Amino acid sequence: MSAAPAASYSPAGPAVASQRHRVGFGHYMLAEWTKIRSVRSTFWTLIVAIVVVVGFTALITWVTAANWNGPRAAPRDARAIADPTAIIFGVAIYLGQLAIAVLGVLVVTTEYSTGVIRASLLAVPRRITMLAAKVTVFTLVMFVLAEILAFGSFFVGAAILHSHVSVSLSDTGVLRATFGAGLYLVTFGLFAMAIGVLLRHTAGAISIAVAVAFVLPILAGLLPDTSLWNHLVGYLPVQAGSQVITVHPTGDAIVLSAWEGYGVLCIWVAVLFGFGAYLFSRRDA
Amino acid sequence: MIEVRDLTKRFGEKLAVDHLSFSVQPGRVTGFLGPNGAGKSTTMRLILGLDRPASGTATINGVPYAQIPTPLRTVGALLEAKSVHTGRTARNHLLFLAQTQGLPSSRADEVLRLVGLSDVAGKRAGAFSLGMGQRLGVAAAMLGDPQVLLLDEPVNGLDPEGVLWIRNLMKALAGEGRTILVSSHLMNEMAVTADHLIVIGRGRLLADAATEEVIARSSGQTVRVRTPDPDRLTALIAADGGKAVPSATGNGNGNGNAAAEAAAGQPSDRAPVLTVTGVAAARIGELAAQSGVVLHELTPQLASLEEAFLELTADSLEYGHLDAQPADWSSR
After folding, report:
1. Residue B324 falls within a domain, yes or no?
2. What does the pLDDT average to over B194-220?
């Protein structure tokens, strides 16, 4: 490594010389975009998300189609006929949400684990503004990806089921459910990101996201089937939010309509980000 | 200019920074000295708005850091703790920082060239050696061509070449009229770098004075002299009002650098060594020349800054006196 002699130091680069530079939210968003695209974990988690969502859609619909009229297949066939979108999205979206959630956590917690948060805050000391830029960029990037995943998943699943059940976007509620599947993925990613802001630790934040996504539904299933419990469970983030993916609601937790449920998930996210932003603005970095 | 007024920071029970006030002037290198745990890094983090003070203020050119619109264009900082994503390339690290300040991406390439990292611009920062990481930190600090620089232990762990590079860079930047605050616990490093010293211990200000003044304030300046004729030189120095005593260790310079000397091929000189107090090195040279006494070595002892520092911080060494301060261990 050759030492650059101090004499070679060029003072103001031409760009720096220009006085009184104004920067705005757009600059911060551009910087956050550079951050998110310049680490490998982004690409790996997105590849996992694509493989899991499209892969499981194909697998589940293929298993259904291949065993049509097979032994003990009657209940499943009936369900596929009654609610084909549930077969298409029922497994894939709920597994895929984990990859999006991991990315949501990582964009925040790796700033802490690697220490780059200090560089980030030296550059943008208005912390809430920096957090807002990060949230905006994550939301935009994930929205595009999640909608591609949702519609891709629908078309793959619908094509595989086609020989037995016909389902199209023009059927009642199907377009909303497909678009909603993308929205749900982004929003759950934001939910995980908010937990990352609160905890600042990767493992802890991912554990909580997994618990909310997979453990709470299991626990909810063990609760007595009373109106009170059904209402409480219906307002949990995943249970409420998933209503927007559901075309024919079934079971106990029909306490919220599709958009009401999605709204409840958004409120969860907003409240967590509210707490997170408050702590973020006050904590030592 | 950096101004710190009555700054206080607590970590639980522990007072990390204790009503600290000082200012850092432009155009010179100001050394920020203190034993480990004295509160140097915390003070810098408070100045930079990374930590919230319990009370007091810190301003840069009269404004708190958080209120500077494009802070990297005013202040550059090299923190001791890592602040680079290990998976991101050096260039992308600088690129996102440049974008937050409205700087063009070409500025990232410029500072990479400045610190000599152009060849590894596309390499992930996690693969960097300590010295390269430090250079990347300097590049980030210089990105906005700031008038004010804060460097926290910049030479820690660097090889001699890197130390020299940082030292020359700081002097050159101060020469351009910039404000430079550099922290260190290495006295000798500060003696050759800093024009002014701010010494703290236990979060309190112990000294705020020119480097020479801090040295002069210590018990006395000493000069190390090696001569084949120690008796005559001792008499000459005594006649001039000074005092020369034979050094206990014939070899080695009292700084524990005997090994370094041996490596440099010096121990072949068996001439006796005197430690002189009360007469400056220049005067000893004159005396010797007038009387024709041969000198093999004439070294003003920088170790005296070490002594000055130890004197100043004797009462404030965090882990120095276990019996006196048992509470500090339990509160950590």
Report:
1. no
2. 84
B311 falls within a domain? no
Q: Do B114 and A4 touch (CB under 8 A)?
A: yes
Same domain for B92 and B154, yes or no, is yes
Please list every residue in chain B whose beta carbon sits closer than 8 Å to the beta carbon of residue A114. 82, 84-87
**CB < 8 Å from B in window 85-114 of A:** 110-111, 114
The token pair at A50 is 């694509």
* Together in a domain, B8 and B127: yes
| Degrees to nearest 5, angle at CA B163 with B50 and B143 | 45
pTM tops 0.90: no
Strand order in the sheet with B14-24: B14-24, B2-11, B55-60
Interface of B with A in 233-252 (CB under 8 A): none
From A220's Cα to the closest Cα of chain B, the distance in A is 40
How is residue A2 annotated by DSSP?
A: P
Taking contacts as CB-CB distances below 8 angstroms, the residues of chain A near B29 are none
Q: A203 vs A94, A200, B103, CA distance in Å?
A: 20, 9, 35
**Any idea what the CATH number is for the domain that residue B208 is in?**
3.40.50.300
Last residue in a domain, options B217, B247, B270:
B217
SS3 B64: coil
Does residue A126 belong to the interface with chain B, where contact is any CB pair within 8 Å? yes
Q: Are residues B14 and B87 in the same domain?
A: yes
pLDDT given at position B220: 60
Shortest CB distance from B88 goes to which of A6, A38, A118? Answer: A38
ipTM: 0.89
Average pLDDT, chain A: 90
Could you tell me the two tokens for B9? 């920071």
The continuous run of DSSP H or E covering B208 comes out as strand B204-210
Q: In a mutagenesis test of the A interface, which of B85, B120, B124, B176 is the best target, namely the one with the most A β-carbons within 10 Å? A: B85
Please state the domain extents for chain A. 26-40+94-144+168-282
Nearest one of A200, A211, A196 to A272, comparing CA atoms: A196
The answer to whether the beta carbons of residues B211 and B298 sit under 8 Å apart is no
Pair (B26, B106) in one structural domain: yes
Instruction: Note every long-range contact of A20-26, with CB atoms under 8 Å and residues 24 or more positions apart, other chains counting.
Output: A21/B70, A21/B73, A21/B101, A21/B102, A21/B103, A22/B69, A22/B102, A23/B69, A23/B70, A23/B100, A23/B101, A23/B102, A25/A129, A25/A132, A25/A133, A25/A136
pLDDT tens, B61-73?
A: 999 999 999 999 9
Nearest neighbour of A9 by CB, restricted to B95, B96, B169: B169
Q: Which helix (H) or strand (E) holds B86?
A: none
